[in-house]
C-alpha cells in the first residue's frame, strides 16, 4: 500500500508539472530596474541629453518614408540569408533566412527576421544623443551589392553628416554565419555636446503568435546575474525593460530564432519595449565627443536561428541564449544525441525513436528493479491486510510488524518508485529539448498519412493535426497501467486508470515530436513488462 501511494504521488506530481507547463508560462526573473543615483557633472549633461529609447526615435509613420525617399537599397546575398541595407543611415530593411520557411507549404516564403512594419522602428539604426541619425543626416555609401560564398567576408561602408557629427559605419558580413560586425567612427565637427550617448538598436515584428504560450517572443539579455528575459507583452508595452552595467548582449528571441545586439563595450544600458506590435531593443553607452577627436565603437549583430554551433562563434556568450530552464543540464546533451542520430538517418522522427530506445536501454535495469519490487509488494498485500486487521488503529505496532515483514521477505517498499523518480528529470529534459530545438522546426517525419494525400506529421514542432499519435499514446498508457502490478485499493486503481485520459488531453496540442517520444516509450515499456511477466510466471 505504501509503495502504491508513493507511485501515485509521483504520477500525480508528473501530471501537475506537465499541466503547469501546459497552462501557464514559466515565471520570469524580474527585470533589473535602472536606479537613479548621484552623478558627476559630465554624467548629468549626458543624462539630460539622452532620454529613454522610446523618446529618441522619430514618429514611426515617417521613418520608412524618409528612408525610402533618400536611400539606396544594397543587397547582401550569402548561402544562409539575403539582406537589404538602406544607405540612408545603414538601416536593415529585411533579412531573409534561406534555410527556413515561414510555413510547411511548398510555396512558403523564407523567414523574414525583420518584417515590413519593423522598418518604421529603424532596425540597425544608430542614435547619438537622441538624434535619429537615419532621419536627420545626409548619407552616402561605399561599396556595391555583395554576393558571398564559402567563408568570404564582405563590407559595406556608410558615411553621414548628422547635426555636426561625421559618422562612418562599416558593416562586415560573413558568408558562413548570420553574424554582422560593425565598426563605427565618429568625429564631432561642430556639435556642442562634449559628452553623450550612442545607441545601437534593432527591431522586428513578433517572431511568434501572441497566443503561443509554448513559443513566446521575448526580450532577453545576459549579464552578471546570468540570463534574464521578459515575455509579458503587456509589461513590455507599458513599461518595457531596462538593465545597466556589464551586459554581454541583448536580444529579441523565440524558441527558434534570435535577433541579438552584442556591443563592443560591456558597460551599457539595455532597453527593450514593444511599440505598435514591434519588438525593439537598444544598447546605449556613454561616449565623450570632444571636438575633432575620432571615437571608435563596435557592435556585433546576429540575426538567425538558435543554432548553438553558430552562436558560439559570436562574441559575448551569445550561446547562453539557448536555455532549457531547470532541465538545461539534461536537455542539452539530449539535443546533441538527437543530432548525432540524425546525421545517420536524416529523419528527426526516426532519430527521436532511436533516442527513445537508447534512453530505455539505459534505464532498463532500473525499470526491471521497479517492476520486480511492485510485484513483490503485490504478493505481500494479503499479509499486510491481515496486519491492519490485527492491529486496527495501533499505528506504532502496525509499522513495526510491517517493517519486519519487509525485512523477512527482503522487500524495499520504495523500490518500485525510486527508479521512476530518477527517470523523471530525463523525461522533462527531453520534453524541453523537443520543445525548443530549431532543428525540429518543420522537421518532416511521415509527411502524408499512409495510403492518402492527407498531410500528417510534416512538422515535429507542431501538434498532430489528426490527433492520431496522442490517442495511440493514451491507449498504450492505458494498456501499460493494466499490465502494472496494482494494490488492492480500488480507489487508487481508479485514479491510476484515469491518468491515461488526463495525459491524452494534455498531449493533444503538444509538439508531435514529443508525443512520438512518449508513445514509443510506452510501447517499449509494454514490451519490457510483458517480458518480465513471462519471467515471473516461469
Automatic annotation (TrEMBL):
Membrane spanning residue stretches: 348-367, 498-520
Principal subcellular localisation of the protein: membrane
Gene3D superfamilies linked to this entry: 2.70.98.90
Any one GO molecular function term: membrane insertase activity
Cellular component annotations (GO), alphabetically ordered: plasma membrane
InterPro entries: Membr_insert_YidC, Membr_insert_YidC_N, YidC/ALB3/OXA1/COX18, YidC/Oxa/ALB_C, YidC_ALB_C, YidC_periplasmic_sf
Membrane topology: Multi-pass membrane protein
Domain Membrane insertase YidC N-terminal: residue ranges: 74-335
Annotated keywords: Cell membrane, Chaperone, Membrane, Protein transport, Transmembrane, Transmembrane helix, Transport
Function of the protein: Required for the insertion and/or proper folding and/or complex formation of integral membrane proteins into the membrane. Involved in integration of membrane proteins that insert both dependently and independently of the Sec translocase complex, as well as at least some lipoproteins. Aids folding of multispanning membrane proteins.
Assembly notes: Interacts with the Sec translocase complex via SecD. Specifically interacts with transmembrane segments of nascent integral membrane proteins during membrane integration.
Protein family membership: Belongs to the OXA1/ALB3/YidC family. Type 1 subfamily.
HAMAP family: YidC_type1
Name of this protein: Membrane protein insertase YidC
Organism: Maridesulfovibrio hydrothermalis AM13 = DSM 14728
Amino acid at each position: 500500500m505504501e509503495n502504491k501511494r508513493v507511485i501515485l504521488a509521483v504520477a500525480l506530481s508528473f501530471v501537475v508539472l506537465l499541466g503547469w507547463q501546459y497552462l501557464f508560462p514559466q515565471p520570469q526573473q524580474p527585470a533589473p530596474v535602472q536606479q537613479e543615483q548621484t552623478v558627476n557633472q559630465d554624467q548629468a549633461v549626458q543624462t539630460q541629453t539622452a532620454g529613454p529609447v522610446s523618446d529618441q526615435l522619430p514618429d514611426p509613420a515617417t521613418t520608412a518614408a524618409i528612408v525610402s525617399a533618400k536611400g539606396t537599397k544594397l543587397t547582401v546575398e550569402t548561402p544562409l540569408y539575403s539582406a537589404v541595407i538602406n544607405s540612408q543611415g545603414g538601416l536593415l530593411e529585411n533579412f531573409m533566412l534561406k534555410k527556413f520557411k515561414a510555413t510547411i507549404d511548398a510555396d512558403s516564403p523564407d523567414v523574414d527576421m525583420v518584417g515590413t512594419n519593423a522598418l518604421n522602428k529603424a532596425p540597425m539604426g544608430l542614435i547619438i544623443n537622441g538624434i535619429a541619425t537615419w532621419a536627420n543626416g545626409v548619407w552616402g555609401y561605399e561599396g556595391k551589392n555583395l554576393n558571398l560564398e564559402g567563408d568570404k567576408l564582405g563590407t559595406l561602408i556608410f558615411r553621414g553628416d548628422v547635426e555636426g557629427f561625421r559618422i562612418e559605419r562599416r558593416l562586415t558580413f560573413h558568408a558562413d554565419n548570420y553574424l554582422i560586425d560593425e565598426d563605427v567612427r565618429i568625429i564631432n565637427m561642430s556639435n556642442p555636446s562634449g559628452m553623450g550617448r550612442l545607441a545601437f538598436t534593432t527591431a522586428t515584428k513578433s517572431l511568434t503568435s501572441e497566443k503561443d504560450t509554448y513559443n513566446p517572443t521575448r526580450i532577453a539579455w545576459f549579464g552578471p546575474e546570468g540570463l534574464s528575459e521578459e515575455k509579458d507583452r503587456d509589461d513590455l508595452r507599458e513599461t518595457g525593460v531596462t538593465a545597466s552595467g556589464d551586459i554581454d548582449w541583448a536580444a529579441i528571441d523565440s524558441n527558434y530564432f534570435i535577433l541579438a545586439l552584442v556591443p563592443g563595450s560591456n558597460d551599457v544600458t539595455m532597453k527593450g519595449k514593444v511599440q505598435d506590435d514591434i519588438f525593439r531593443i537598444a544598447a546605449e553607452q556613454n561616449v565623450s565627443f570632444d571636438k575633432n577627436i575620432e571615437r571608435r565603437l563596435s557592435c556585433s549583430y546576429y540575426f538567425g536561428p538558435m543554432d548553438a554551433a553558430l552562436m558560439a562563434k559570436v562574441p559575448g556568450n551569445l550561446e547562453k541564449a539557448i536555455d532549457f530552464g531547470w532541465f538545461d543540464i539534461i536537455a542539452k546533451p539530449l539535443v546533441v544525441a538527437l543530432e548525432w542520430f540524425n546525421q545517420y538517418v536524416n529523419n528527426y522522427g526516426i532519430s527521436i525513436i532511436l533516442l527513445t530506445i537508447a534512453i530505455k536501454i539505459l534505464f532498463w535495469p532500473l525499470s526491471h528493479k521497479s517492476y520486480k519490487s511492485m510485484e513483490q509488494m503485490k504478493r505481500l498485500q494479503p499479509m499486510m491486510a491481515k496486519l491492519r486487521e490485527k492491529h486496527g488503529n495501533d499505528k506504532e505496532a502496525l509499522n513495526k510488524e510491517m517493517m519486519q515483514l519487509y525485512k523477512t521477505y527482503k522487500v524495499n517498499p520504495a523500490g518500485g518508485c525510486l527508479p521512476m523518480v530518477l527517470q523523471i528529470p530525463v523525461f522533462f529534459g527531453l520534453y524541453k529539448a523537443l520543445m525548443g530545438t530549431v532543428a525540429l522546426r518543420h522537421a518532416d517525419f511521415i509527411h502524408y498519412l499512409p495510403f492518402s494525400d492527407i498531410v500528417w506529421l510534416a512538422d515535429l514542432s507542431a501538434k498532430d493535426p489528426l490527433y492520431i499519435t496522442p490517442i495511440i499514446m493514451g491507449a498504450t498508457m492505458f494498456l501499460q497501467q493494466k499490465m502494472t502490478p496494482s494494490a488492492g485499493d480500488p480507489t487508487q486503481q481508479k485514479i491510476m486508470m484515469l491518468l491515461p485520459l488526463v495525459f491524452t488531453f494534455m498531449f493533444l496540442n503538444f509538439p508531435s515530436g514529443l508525443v512520438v517520444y512518449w508513445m514509443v516509450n510506452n510501447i517499449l515499456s509494454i514490451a519490457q513488462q510483458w517480458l518480465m511477466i513471462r519471467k515471473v510466471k516461469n
